[in-house]
Amino acid sequence: MTRYVAILAGGSGTRLWPLSRASSPKQLLALVGDRSLVQATVDRVRPLVPPERILIVTEASHAEALQAQLPEIPASNILVEPARRGTAAAVGLAATYISHQDRSATMASLHSDAFVLDPDGFRRSLNAAFEVAESGTWLVTLGMRPTSAHTGMGYIEVGDPIGVFGGLSAHRAVRFVEKPEQEEAERLVAAGYVWNPGMFIWSVDVILAEFRRWLPQMYGRLEAIRDGIDSPHRDSIREREYLQMVPETIDYGIMERAKILATIPTAFGWSDVGNWSEILKIGECDDQGNLVRGDHLGIETRRTLVYASNRPIFTVGVDDLVIVDLPDALLICHRDEAERVKQLVEQVQTRPEWRHLL
After folding, report:
1. 334 lies in which domain range?
2. Which of 40, 118, 214, 262 could be 268's S-S partner, Cβ–Cβ 3.0 to 4.6 Å?
C-alpha cells in the first residue's frame, strides 16, 4: 500500500501568547531549535514518506507562510480550508484528496505543533502503526506512555493485544477519556492508560467508511468535494461544501464511537508544546535550569524562561518565572500558572484597544 502523511497546521496556540498569534501561530515558530515546529514535523516523516505524499491542511491566512517554510512540499499538496470546521473536517479533507489519488492508500494524520526528542523512535512507532493499519480494518492511534498525571491530555484505555508490528505491541483501544480532573488522571495513569496525542493512522477507505457511518452529513460534503477535484470549479465547490459542514473533532465525531480501534503504547519524548512551562521542560537549560533567548543577566535566578526580543532583561532573586518580552507586549507569569495564559488571551479579546495583539 502507498503511504501518505497529512499534517494539520491550523490553530493559533493561544497558550504561547504573546509570541504565538493569529498571524504567526506556534507551528510557524522555532520554539525549540532552529526549525519551526511544522518544519520539524515534516523533517521527521521525510525518511518514511516523500514530499509529494505529504499534505498540509491549513487555513488561508497561513498558506503562504507554510509554502515559504516548506518549499519541498508541492503547492497543490497544501490544502486550504475555507473556514475552521474542526479536526474531523480537516482529516476528512485530507483523506478525500488522498483517496482521489489512490483508494488503497494508508495515511497518517499528525499535528504540526508537537516536539519529539527521539525522531528515530517516532519513525519506528509510525511505521509499526502503518503495518497495523495495513493488516486489517483498524483505526490506529499512537499512545504516549504518560510522564505525569496531566489534566490537559486525553487518555486511552489499553485493551487486549492484537499482535507485534515492527517490534512494537499493538492493542485494542477500549475507550477514550477526555482531559480528566487531577484525581481521575492519577487513577488512569496508575491503571495503565496512555495519552492520546492525536496521531492517527488508517487506510483511507476505512476512515471514509467511518465518516459515512458516524458523520454522514460531513461525509456527503466530502464526497461532493471529491467529485469536484478535477473540475475547473473545484475551489468554489470546496468552499461551498466546506462552509456547510457542522464543526466537529475527529475524537468526538469518530474515535470515541468507532468499534475498530487499535493503539500502540510507545514513548519517544513527545510534547505538545502546550504552554511556556512545557518549553522549559524540553529546551536546553543552563546549570540553573534557566532557558534564555536573547540578552539576559540574572543573579540567583533559577528555573526561569526568558524570551528577550528587543532589549536586555535583568533578574535578581527570582525562581520559576516565565518572562516573554516583545516590542508591543510583556508577559510575566509563574511557570506553574502558564496554562492560564489562555484565560488571559480570552480577556484580551474583550478589550478593543488590545485586540491587535492577538
Report:
1. 276-357
2. 118
Q: Are residues 287 and 266 in the same domain?
A: no
> How far from the centroid of its chain's Cα atoms is residue 186's Cα?
24
CB 70 within 8 A of CB 56: yes
What Å distances lie between residue 217 and 91, 133, 148, CA to CA?
Answer: 15, 25, 39
Q: Which of 16, 27, 33, 113 is nearest to 324 (CA)?
A: 16
Where a domain ends, among 223, 243, 271? Answer: 271
CATH of the domain at 196: 3.90.550.10
Task: List C-alpha distances in Å: 302 to 126, 336, 341, 346.
Answer: 37, 14, 21, 30
Q: How far apart are CA 333 and CA 62, in angstroms?
A: 29
Name the grid cell of 307.
524570551
Could you report the per-residue pLDDT of 102-155, keeping only the tens digit for each?
999 999 999 999 999 999 999 999 999 999 999 999 999 999 999 889 888 899
Is the bond preceding residue 18 a cis peptide, omega within 30 degrees?
Answer: yes
Closest CA to 134 of 160, 173, 170: 170
Closest CA to 38 of 68, 16, 17, 60: 68
Q: How many domains does the chain have?
A: 2
Answer yes or no: do 82 and 125 share one domain: yes
User: What is the 3-state secondary structure of 34-62?
Assistant: CCCHHHHHHHHHCCCCCHHHEEEEEEHHH
Q: What is the mean pLDDT of residues 4-32?
A: 90
Claim to verify: residue 134 and residue 201 sit in the same structural domain: yes
